[in-house]
Amino acid sequence: MVKGHVVTDGTGRGRRVLVAADKFKGSLTAAEVAVRVAAGLRRVVPDVVVEALPVADGGDGTVDAALAAGFERREVRVAGPLGEPVGAAFAVRGDTAVVEMAEANGLRRLPEGVRAPLTASTYGSGELLRAALDAEARTVVFGVGGSATTDGGAGMLTALGAQLLDGDGKPVAPGGGALGDLARADLSGLDPRLASVDLVLAGDVDNPLTGPQGAAAVYGPQKGASPEDVTLLDAALAHYVTVLAATVPRAADLATFPGAGAAGGLGYAALLLGARFRPGIEVVLDTLGFAAALERADLVITGEGSLDDQTLHGKAPAGVAAAARAAGKQVVAVCGRLTLSPAALRNAGITHAYPLTSLEPDESVCRAQAGPLLERLATRVAEDHLT
Question: pTM surpassing 0.70?
């Protein structure tokens, strides 16, 4: 049965396991991962107590993780990346809101096979932030990642009351490609409530806005940008900064800050609004109450779809493992595929990892049958660590 966020067989006896895993992208949500792991553990140790705390790194799945932890779901209609209306969710608990830009302007909001690197806008992300303000949030955790956009957050600023005008005094067109036409920026009309809100920019990348490590160069190709598009976008973003710097203190400096290049430069606009950047997994763990759950656990199980080099750079399993190791807790991981060496896992604080591919070498089958395979895999975890 499920009691609160503790999954148990009803006896309340046995060792306590904390399942704090991210989603298996394309196969299982983080909450589904926890349910399958709990079921597998109970096959071997019926009286085990499993506490589920689905996590995310600030990108896709951050709102779902908050909802699984007891936040209330709110839904609004906002502009998608191409301006079409989409239904987007955010999460609220008390005076804290969790907002995920991908809900409004993520790649998944584009029609299948469509990419719009020059024209995709973050306007809907600004509408989501405004909805959080309407919900009387005093702290807004703003998860960025999985974006379809490279507009430097210009759309978001516009939705929040800024004016970005061309040489004729008309609003510049949506998307990063049009920022080269920007002649004047006026941020005096920004929603005044932003000044009294603690805006936390939660991301897993520390790129600056422009240059060879910037938003366009590093992430533009993932959003469909050709080499010519990347050059155009990088120049447009640099021009955007120059125009903003004429009226906004520190606008040029903020473009070099870690996280400014997150979500196609949305991070830069958030920093302009006074946001403070923190690694997404740290913010999520704090927001969800991970420390208290960790204290109750005898064993921690984390994971995600692929444990690889990217995992070590700010992804959820690395953050969970680091916090658990600091608390003296043993950590194991489950995953779809594993490319990290045992030494790399140990350095990350993970004593052992269990990939689905150890049961089924065909990765396409692993994706299609991830749930049942993960349940079987969890029986191995139980046999190794709970008996």
Answer: yes
Percent of the chain with pLDDT over 90: 91
User: Angle between the 30-44 and 370-385 helix axes, to the nearest 10 degrees?
Assistant: 50
Domains parsed from the chain with CATH numbers: 2-53+290-385 (3.40.50.10350), 62-281 (3.90.1510.10)
- For the chain, give the secondary structure using H, E and C: CEECCEEECCCCCCCEEEECCCCECCCECHHHHHHHHHHHHHHHCCCCEEEECCCCCCCCCHHHHHHHCCCEEEEEEEECCCCCEEEEEEEEECCEEEEEHHHHHEHHHCCCCCCCCCCCCCHHHHHHHHHHHHCCCCEEEEECCCECCCCCCHHHHHHCCCEEECCCCCECCCCHHHHHHCCEEECCCCCHHHHHCEEEEEECCCCCCCCCCCHHHHHHHHHCCCHHHHHHHHHHHHHHHHHHHCCCCCHHHHCCCCCCCHHHHHHHHHHHCCCEEEEHHHHHHHHHCHHHHHHHCCEEEEEEEEECHHHHCCCHHHHHHHHHHHCCCEEEEEEEEECCCHHHHHHHCCCEEEEHHHCCCCHHHHHHCHHHHHHHHHHHHHHHHCC
| Contact residues for 155 (Cβ-Cβ < 8 A; gap 6+) | 79, 105, 121, 122, 123, 124, 125, 126, 149, 174, 175
pLDDT in tens, 185-216: 999 999 999 999 999 999 888 899 999 999 99
